[in-house]
Write a structure and sequence with these properties.
about 40% helix; 14 helices; alpha/beta; 7-stranded mixed β-sheet; about 425 residues; globular; 19 strands
Length: about 425
């Protein structure tokens, strides 16, 4: 039995809005109420706020290799999509690049306090080794000690080919695992087309069949500007009308973005039990809109937080995007308090993945946690150190990160990999 005690914190954010002091006790990778701590490992949290590990509910890890590309910033999505596609084609997407990009993106995630990443992988060249690509991303997460939710997406893929690939990935990565979650909880497989703007009903139907066969979560993107425009042009209907008809408004579905939604649509999403993911670090700087998070939450919709990918958001720093979400919320309704946005970045994201053991520090939860140092000058004068995680010190990084009871970031450095080597290998691959 392994016992870890996190001791001496300024505050412990246990769950949404619940703050306490005292120890966090971990036994065999799970948070417990109490245990014999005689021979425990002690993790000194003096001067720190302790939170659950952040959960990035919407990322495109491949785009980590394609940040700040000329001609891809501040442009309409109709122009952005082909510009990114051209970059992917020129680079040649294969298992090697998939793994290197995932390794860099996941390292960045851990170093910024994100312990679980949902990777909505959308780029699958016809005939590619799709199982090899999925394995490469999963191996990158395993090497670093991060949790990964690998989403076999689709973007204008052949529907039959996409479904066959999804089935093969399930068989290779999580065979016979309920809900597509590995026995140790470190890997999860889900499915999801990019959206009605790129994929026909057949793709939604066939990927949905794979999901239902294995109890997988389903994810897609909806109601960004281009999504609405193309749906109206192609079908004469709005995206959520189509998703409802196609069986993709349901409790096992999460919708990313939702920038352009009507009150009626919000009500229908809420009634269906569908969850949502807000991605302000993508949508705001690109000019694609701001999701009305206050209205979504008031309707009873579970809302998580995601960064989206490096092609639109050049950082995978979820806490920075939580700060942005809090700040821009006042543009579309009452401002969200820091406590709510922190819950979106932890338990909200986790619940949308069907992973209620993540994103909180209550007994029985997985011991994924971060120690955020609030003793420096950036936090001087801060009355509420938990709210200060968002209001003060933009871009802060955690001192220590623990995943499943194991330290994976110590003193701001990766424990299981060399950051410089990760950077060098990715640059070598994308420039050759």
């Amino acid at each position: 039995m392994s016992v870890l005690v996190v001791r001496g914190a300024v505050a412990v954010l246990e769950d949404a809005g619940r703050v306490r002091t005292g120890d966090v006790i971990v036994v065999d990778g799970a948070v417990v109420d109490d245990a014999d701590t005689t021979d425990a490992e002690i993790l000194d949290a003096s001067g720190c706020v302790v939170t659950a590990g952040l959960v990035n509910a919407h990322h495109h890890l491949l785009q980590t290799a394609f940040r700040t590309l000329p001609g891809t910033r501040g442009i309409p999505m109709r122009e952005w999509l082909p510009a990114m596609a051209a970059a992917y084609t020129a680079a040649g997407i294969d298992p090697e690049l998939t793994g290197l990009a995932a390794r860099a993106g996941l390292a960045e995630a851990l170093l910024s306090g994100v312990t679980t990443v949902a990777d909505h992988h959308l780029t699958w060249p016809s005939g590619a080794d799709t199982v090899g690509m999925a394995r490469a991303a999963a191996a990158a997460a395993a090497d670093l000690g991060a949790r990964l939710v690998f989403v076999r997406g689709a973007a204008r893929d052949d529907p039959q080919e996409a479904a066959s690939s999804a089935q093969a990935i399930v068989d290779a990565l999580v065979p016979d695992r309920p809900g597509g979650v590995s026995a140790d909880g470190m890997l999860q497989v889900a499915v999801g087309p990019a959206g009605v703007h790129s994929d026909p009903r057949e793709t939604f139907d066939l990927l949905g069949e794979v999901a239902h066969r294995h109890g997988l979560r389903r994810r897609t993107q909806a109601n960004e500007v281009v999504d609405v425009e193309i749906a109206l042009e192609r079908y004469g209907r709005r995206p959520l009308d189509l998703l409802e008809d196609w069986g993709w408004l349901a409790a096992d579905v999460t919708l990313a973005h939702l920038c352009d939604v009507t009150p009626d649509e919000i009500g229908r999403v809420a009634a269906s039990g569908t969850s949502a993911t807000h991605a302000p670090g993508c949508d705001v700087p690109m000019g694609w809109g701001v999701a009305p998070v206050r209205a979504l939450r008031d309707a009873g919709i579970t809302v998580g937080l995601g960064t989206s990918g490096g092609g639109s958001n050049d950082a995978g720093h979820l806490l920075a995007d939580a700060r942005l979400a809090m700040q821009v919320s006042a543009l579309v309704g009452p401002q969200l308090p820091a406590s709510e946005v922190l819950s979106m970045a932890t338990s909200g994201s986790a619940d949308g993945l069907g992973r209620t053991e993540l994103g909180r520090l209550t007994p029985g939860s997985a011991a994924d946690l971060c120690l955020w140092d609030v003793s420096g000058v950036a936090d001087a004068g801060v009355a509420d150190p938990v709210a200060g995680l968002l209001w003060a010190s933009p871009g802060r990084r955690p001192r220590t990160v623990v995943v499943g009871g194991r330290v994976v970031v110590d003193a701001g450095r990766l424990v299981r990999a060399d950051e410089g080597e990760i950077v060098t290998r990715l640059f070598e691959r994308v420039t050759r």
